[in-house]
Design goal:
heterodimer; A: alpha/beta; five-stranded mixed sheet; 21 helices; globular; B: alpha+beta; 42% helix; elongated
């Protein structure tokens, strides 16, 4: 045997050459190629690894011709000495780049199911208390205390309850849910199993966006494996005699509607209807899918649950800041040198994220602005970078952390064009239920079109501000409420470009 | 059109008896088989599911990825998500439009490619991204567009 190498099968790794390497190297006799998840240091992909005496050794940005050298062990870098990875606190992504996504053995030997086993020893109420003590807040964007949601779903009596994972990761600039689904689908499902046991649900769905076909396939394979192994199905949650029982899970694929990432629209879509936002209350935990109590959370939230049950809510609450406990996987993109996923406790500053992890600006690029929290997130300039990354500081600044996406723009970015892009997006994606969002986004885009073409009229900026205020105040969901922020912050920071 | 009826029978079987028919699932099944959902199939779908034509049309037109026109053999989706915008994906889009000779939303005359935009391929750490069918391509430079398309006949 010649040797064993590790190579990620994550979409981003494949997108930058891992698949080509795998194809070519598959023909090399005696070479065993193990396809793992990705460490999230996407700027190093394709990252080829080998077992060394003290952990893995890596060859970043590997090409086809590097194989002989790699097999000789020449010039490799010990993975643990890569600063980008060494400085992180990996919890939810602890096994990223290490294990094979669909290997139950790998999952078990790397801590898998410890959370579920701990949960099955507790009463449902005790599990909910553990989640409450952890102070975990929903990671999809709304940051609602997860314990409260679970308590409501537990307390609502019904003949049928559901658990739904929101895998409609539509915020541009974010990909951590995709990495969980492609890299460690068992962790997501373990979190859902714990939730099902806690609130008394027997059926679950993972609503996966259409743009993630690989994730949907992997999830279906993972469900088949877990069903065969008895983790899903009739005795998924222990014997019925001991209060456990059945839990089944299905993957449902959406069809490209951004608004379906909003929980009430998502549930409509899951029922097969048009994805329209519904007024709350009632909240899904009380009346959700088919009118039944439904615990719906984002993928990352569920994936955080196993560690909380395995290590205790108090452990989770010991990480992070006063109002933001635990870790957050930041997804750093745009014009930085080292784009990728970074899991750290809440509290580091935006500047630290960009400089220490992002590695500063890419060659030839100068910093102009950064957007945090997806297409509805506010823009920050240099002076705003001292803000600590946590829910409290962001909400005080009128901004959002959203799903943890950070996109850095360089000096070549035209702010009018960018603002127009934001409003074109909102106009495309508005579900149309609220007039301010449906009409306001189109009007705002039209005005920005005009400014971009040099046909600015008096009162344009005032009208944009007015439209923005109306959308914020009179839209039901975050799309209409938040869409004005990136545009208005662009005008605030770069007013000259709009005049 | 018999094909649609049998497709829907299968899709309908996936719905438990106590629940209303899942229109989106049914339309996905039609699209998976035919490549698109012909607009004139709406009455037939409605009849097979026992819902109104308005219900079906509302779902069909409410989702950008349900197609009412047949796509080309390959669908090229240029990502316009923020990280791609930051990495100047407009230049990539222009090059793709030039190479294919079509604008966003159109299909090449030989039926080989349909060009679309997408808001985020989830490949933001390797922007700009172009998704062709189910393959995501990252760090796409305008100069590499030609070679990229060549692999899809």
């Amino acid at each position: 045997m010649m040797g064993r190498l590790y190579l990620s099968q994550d979409t981003s790794a494949r997108a930058v050459g891992a698949e080509r390497l795998a194809r070519v190297w598959a023909k090399v006799p005696g070479l065993e190629l193990v396809r793992t998840s990705s460490r999230g240091a996407i700027f190093l992909e394709p990252l080829v690894e080998m077992d060394g005496p003290h952990g893995r050794i890596g060859w970043p940005n590997a090409g086809e011709r590097d194989l002989p050298g790699i097999l000789q062990g020449e010039n490799g870098t010990p993975i643990e000495r890569i600063p980008y990875l060494a400085k992180q606190t990996r919890v939810t992504f602890a096994n990223a780049g290490v294990t094979r996504p669909l290997s139950l053995d790998d999952y078990r030997t790397h801590g898998g199911f410890q959370g579920l086993e701990a949960a099955l020893r507790l009463t449902p109420q005790k599990i909910v208390e553990e989640v409450t003590v952890s102070k975990l807040r929903g990671r999809g964007g709304a940051a609602y205390p997860v314990g409260l949601k679970w308590q409501a779903a537990l307390e609502t009596h019904a003949d049928q309850k559901y658990v739904v994972a929101n895998a409609d990761e539509g915020d541009a600039g974010t990909y951590c849910d995709r990495m969980i689904m492609e890299g460690e689908p068992f962790r997501l499902i373990e979190g859902m199993l714990i939730a099902a046991y806690a609130v008394g649900a027997t059926e679950g769905y993972i609503y996966c966006r259409y743009e993630y076909p690989v994730a949907a396939r992997l999830l279906r394979d993972a469900i088949a494996l877990l069903t065969e192994a008895g983790y899903l199905g009739d005795e998924a949650l222990g014997s019925q005699a001991r209060g456990g029982g059945r839990f089944t899970l299905e993957v449902f694929v959406g069809a490209g509607s951004y608004v379906c990432g909003e929980e009430t629209a998502l549930l409509q879509s899951l029922e097969g209807k048009r994805g329209m936002v519904q007024a709350k209350p009632p909240y899904p935990a009380v009346s959700g899918l088919y009118g039944k109590p439904t615990l719906i959370s984002n993928v990352l939230t569920f994936a955080t649950i196993p560690a909380i049950l395995a290590r205790g809510g108090a452990w989770h609450a010991s990480l992070g800041t006063e109002q933001s406990k635990g870790t957050i996987p930041l997804q750093i993109g745009g014009r930085v040198k080292q784009p990728g996923l970074v899991e750290v406790p809440f509290g580091l500053t935006l500047n630290e994220a960009i400089e220490e992890f992002g590695g500063g600006m890419a060659a030839g690029a100068r910093f102009k602005a950064v957007q945090v929290g997806g297409p509805l997130g506010s823009l920050f300039t240099k002076s705003g970078l001292t803000i600590p990354i946590c829910y409290d500081a962001f909400s005080r600044a009128g901004a959002i952390l959203g799903h943890g996406g950070i996109v850095v723009f360089d000096q070549e970015t035209d702010m009018v064009e960018l603002a127009r892009h934001f409003m074109a997006f909102t106009a495309d994606e508005s579900c149309g239920k609220c007039t301010p969002c449906r009409v306001g986004a189109v009007r705002a885009r039209e005005i920005l079109d005009g400014i971009g073409l040099g046909r600015r009229r008096p009162g344009d900026l005032e009208l944009l501000a007015d439209l923005g205020e109306t959308m914020k105040a009179a839209s039901l969901c975050a799309l209409g409420q938040r869409a004005p922020y990136p545009v208005l912050t662009a005008i605030e920071h770069f007013r000259k470009e709009f005049q | 059109m018999n094909r649609i009826a049998s497709l829907l029978e299968r899709a309908r079987a996936a719905d438990p008896d106590d629940r209303p028919p899942n229109i989106l699932r049914a339309l996905h099944a039609v699209q998976a088989s035919l490549g698109h959902v012909p607009q004139d199939s709406v009455p037939e779908v409605a009849a097979a599911l026992g819902v109104t034509e308005a219900d079906v049309a509302g779902v069909l037109l409410g989702y950008p990825d349900l197609r009412t026109r047949p796509p080309g053999r390959h669908v090229v989706r240029v990502c316009l998500g923020e990280s791609c915008v930051a990495n100047h994906c407009g230049r990539v889009l222009k090059e793709v439009e030039k190479k294919l000779g079509v604008r966003l939303g159109d299909t090449t005359r030989d039926g080989r490619f349909t060009l679309e935009k997408m808001y985020c391929a989830g490949n933001c750490a390797a922007s700009p991204s172009v998704m062709i069918d189910e393959d995501v391509h990252g760090r796409v430079a305008p100069a590499s567009v030609g070679a990229l398309l060549k692999d899809y006949r």
